[in-house]
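Changelog excerpt

This revision adds worked examples to the README so contributors can see how folded entries look when concatenated. The first example is reproduced verbatim below.
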Amino acid sequence: MDPVQPACMQMIWVSNRGSGQTALVSILFGLLLLIFSPFIPGLIGIFLAAAIFILSLALIGIGITMRGTGLSVPLIIIGVIGGGLSLYALLSPEVTVSLIGILLGIVILIMGVSQLFFSPQFIQDRLSWFFLIGGGIITLLVGFYMILYPQEGMQLVMAFLGCYLIIYGIIGYIRSRKVPCSDFYYQ
């Protein structure tokens, strides 16, 4: 008798021979994140600060060209404030990284709760179930850590994401070898 694959499983696992290559890419990307995790938060902060600085200069330019209208002064004020804050962030990227850390902590916390919420649907597939339960608990802990210690947490998130991708890739590779494409059907 052919096993019946729930539709929700198809969204999480790609169960065909092509997932072997996808799994290897996931493992490689995870290793790169682990290796370069100390540098990624600073780069994110610098790029965001530079983008905000460019947008602030554009707002100042638009405000100057719209002289005489009611929008001129507010645009210039917003541009000057944004430019000052972005210059401050460019000179001290840890400030930018700290704000990003808090937001990422909240997103990671929500991701952990959703993993734990959806794990009972995968009880028939033990590998997926253990991955979701273990990943959900670790994700909750990382989310709380990010909210409490945002600066140190950014490096932890990059390392965590790297480990997560490596494990996901290994599981995808195992599943691609064990289960041929024709064994899965939607209900």
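The second example, added in the same revision:
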Amino acid sequence: MRAVFVCLATIIFSANLLYTQTTGINKYHILSDKVALTLEGGVTYTLADFKKAEYSYFGRLLGEYFFPSTQIGVWGLRGHATTGFLQGSGGASTSRPNLTQFKTTIISFGGGVEYLLSLSNVVMPYVYGGAAYLYYDPKDDNGNRLERNISKKYSRHEWSLIGEFGFRFLASENISVNLGANINYVNSDNLDDIIAGTDNDIFFKGFAGLSIYFGGTSDSDEDGIKDDDDLCPGTPQGVMVDQFGCPFDTDNDGVPDYLDKCLNTPAGILVDTDGCPVDSDGDGVPDYLDLCKDTPAGVPIDTRGCPFDEDEDGVPDYRDKCPGTPTGMEVNKFGCQLEIFKKELPELTATILTSGANFDVGKSNLLPGAKIELDKLVAVMIKHPETRWNIDGHTDNTGSYSLNKRLSYERALSVANYFVLRGIDRARLEINGLGPDYPVAENTTESGRAMNRRVAITLIDKDVKSQPPLDIEYDVKSERHVGNMIFTDGNQYCVQVSSFRNRQRAENELRRLQDLGENAFIVKVNLPQLDGIWHRVRIGYFNTLSEAMQRRGKVVR
């Protein structure tokens, strides 16, 4: 008996393991969480102490409950009530020759555990093991109690052990036809009223019947998650799901794995319906890696998604009318070298305003005499609008260093404000308060200190390269980086001064640059590979790369 149970346990375990490895699907068993009411009847066959074992009949009523299961098999609990008869004939194999036949009435109540295995959607073999209370009443062929029964030589109440094997054939989800047989081992040798030999009496049953099932687990999409708990009803059959009934989405991009053609998309990246990163221009480089998102169709690109620029002049090859431009040459929007316009400037090195004749003592407001000299410079500036100028304020070393620095800056600013008042663009002027750091004479004498108290106005570039301004709007969508944080759209250039996550810090930097006369602006960009939104502070725009480079050298700290 023990070997039989070990064999059955091995079969059950192997079947479940094979089912899980083969299907990988947690579909609920058809009897999962169901209650069954079963009526069965059949024949009994008794091995007792009479010479001839005979068949009789019985009937039973079963109540069953099957546990929730997503395996190929399902466990259940059973309770039963049975009534019937056992009989034998041919005379007893003892010294009671007058006793030729017995017929024992049996009534039992019991329960146990069963396991059903689904071989298909219809056929389910099962095994059952349990115990039962057994009442039995041995009688002769006339219906009279036998001798030892009458004299109460034994108790008519015993326990029996039951082992059962059978098949259930599903006619529908709620009805099955059953066939089976069991063995009943009784802890008594008195089923026939006779004690003989060393073995107890046993009897067998063979039966057929009908089961009706109620309730059960509702799982419409058969994914192993009850409908009440399923957050994704209607999942296609065969698709693996998580604990909520939703298809697995390993990279969390919103496209389930069974539809996802790009299973390892980085977090936060926008994807298409196939689960692949969006590639707006179709160049093979996804947008989150593409530095040039609007490349025309068919244009060869590098690993950054940008069109090739073999001569590195800032104009991509597909638009470059002059390929092979030497390194460092300035080009126009067609990639061709710019002409250099040289404008003659007057022989002018510097204009020096000393403090005594041009400023109030210890103050920054201009005296009338200073304006005569400044107007001469205004005329030059108006005639040569491409020029740029330094305005440097200086002091002697008398007094507080910080006060001297501030006074020198305020005097330089007064000069600049006068130029602006006369129509000069503020962006052409560089203002510096240098304090006592750059003396031109000794500070040990009054005449030396007077020479050191001055404002110097000097030309920044004597040879000026210029290009007529381009009447075109800067295209930020097609821009590319040409080095040193200088960007171009192929026509104009701008310089990136700084970049901040915090908008307020970017605006503070913007105001600082605008106070210096720069055409500053903020570009807001979303960079998933750098964890989100950045605020880029830039200045521009410039017609040539050299202009952008010169401006960067002055502005970028």
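Reviewer comment on example two: Confidence is low (pLDDT under 50) at residues 19-24, 463-470. The chain has three domains: 2-215, 350-459, 476-555.
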